[in-house]
Amino acid sequence: GMGSFTGKMFHSARWDHDYDLNGKKVAVIGTGASAIQFVPEIVPRVKSLGLFQRSAAWVLPKPDRPFYRWEQTLFRRIPAWDRLYRYLIYWKNESRALAFTRFNSLLEIFAWQARRFARSQVQNEEKLRHLIPDYRIGCKRILISNDWYQAVDQPHVDLVTTGIERIVEDGVVTNDGALHKVDAIIMGTGFAASEFLSPMAITGRNGVSLNQAWAGGSEAYKGITVSGFPNLFMLYGPNTNLAHNSIVYMLESQFQYVLSCIRTLQAEPGTAMDVKPDRLREFSATVQQKLQNSVWESGCHSWYLDENGRNTVNWPGFTFTYRKATRQVDTHDYEFLRPSRSS
Q: What confidence tens digit (pLDDT) does each residue in 272-306 have?
């Protein structure tokens, strides 16, 4: 019934900045990483907000603070101090990979912190009951915010946990038959995270499209190359997302690998390189095997999983092992296609 709505409707990724939310009755559909960013910003402006939640998210406080004066002095006077500080951040985050991929019970420390944080921020007991997730922390993306709970706890915010049946011309109807009348609907419904490179149409050897090659699930060798698609190098491809550290580190590793491939190709102009199918199968099988013991396989439904329930998004290990694996291309992993020359 989305087409029947006579008010304003838009997705958070395509924000309508010309629409004035002040004094409006607003519905927000979704309580994930998108909503947690914009809801606290619009709550002070709207007359009322209906927040439609399918499942609660685990939320941890954001550890932001001003640097102390003595820290600023160290940064200013000791040239290597900023590098050391950066390394400390990296290794602190990197250690969390053990909790996500091997020792899931360690995540209960974060669950305790999240529950304690929620109870300190939310005064409405009914809302608090619905804001604490019933699945293992880490199974879905953990969210970081200092103002989310305070925003949801406001008296003019209605946390709706009943499923949506349809949208009508003047609002949202839930499965219990209740009509929530609103002037505007904002979709905080996220993105098609497992549909890599969509909506681009990419055709490989023998006329096979990438969508056809990935019909059973997206996969790429080291998250970068796909069998049957010579000279196709992608960044942030299948199974290279992280839940514990910075994706920038993964991207930097991929840059180095792709540049290594390009240098290999430059040695013989006109040559194309195609990763061998057995190398891709072996790599994908290893990734999926390692994912079996991860928290992402603990039973919840998340955007980490594709429509077949297969995790095609996350990297199941440390970032430094990925960097080592992508430092230099191994030409034995590839079939080299050379242009045919007429006699």
A: 999 999 999 999 999 999 999 899 998 888 888 88
Counted domains in the chain: 2
Length, in residues, of the chain? 343
Give the pLDDT band of residue 248 (cuts 50, 70, 90).
very high
The rounded distance, in Å, linking the Cα atoms of 62 and 146 is 6
Q: Are residues 10 and 147 in the same domain?
A: yes
Distance CA 203, CA 292 (A): 32
Is there a contact between 196 and 225 (Cβ–Cβ < 8 Å)? no
Q: Is 80 exceeded by the pLDDT of residue 342?
A: no
Domain extent for 281: 205-337
Q: Dihedral of CA 87/93/94/95: which sign?
A: positive
CATH of the domain at 109: 3.50.50.60
Q: What is the pLDDT of residue 80?
A: 94
pLDDT, mean over the chain: 93
The residue among 172, 278, 193, 269 whose CA lies nearest residue 238 is 193
Considering all CA atoms of the chain, what is the largest pairwise distance in Å, rounded to the nearest integer? Answer: 83
143 and 212 fall within a common domain: no
Beta-carbon count within 10 A of 28 CB: 27
For residues 263 and 330, state if they share a domain. Answer: yes
Judge whether 198 lies within some domain. no
- The encoded tokens of residue 254 equal 């991929």
**Of the candidates 67, 215, 36, which has an alpha carbon nearest to the alpha carbon of residue 143?**
36
Q: What is the pTM of this model?
A: 0.86
State what percent of residues in the chain have pLDDT above 90.
84
**Pick from 16, 53, 62, 14: nearest CA to 35:** 53
Determine which helix (DSSP H) or strand (DSSP E) holds 274, and give its type and residue range.
strand 272-275
| Segment 105-143, tens digit of pLDDT | 889 999 999 999 999 999 999 999 999 999 999 999 999
Residues 21 and 165 in one domain: yes
Q: Which of 187, 221, 246 is the last residue of a domain?
A: 187
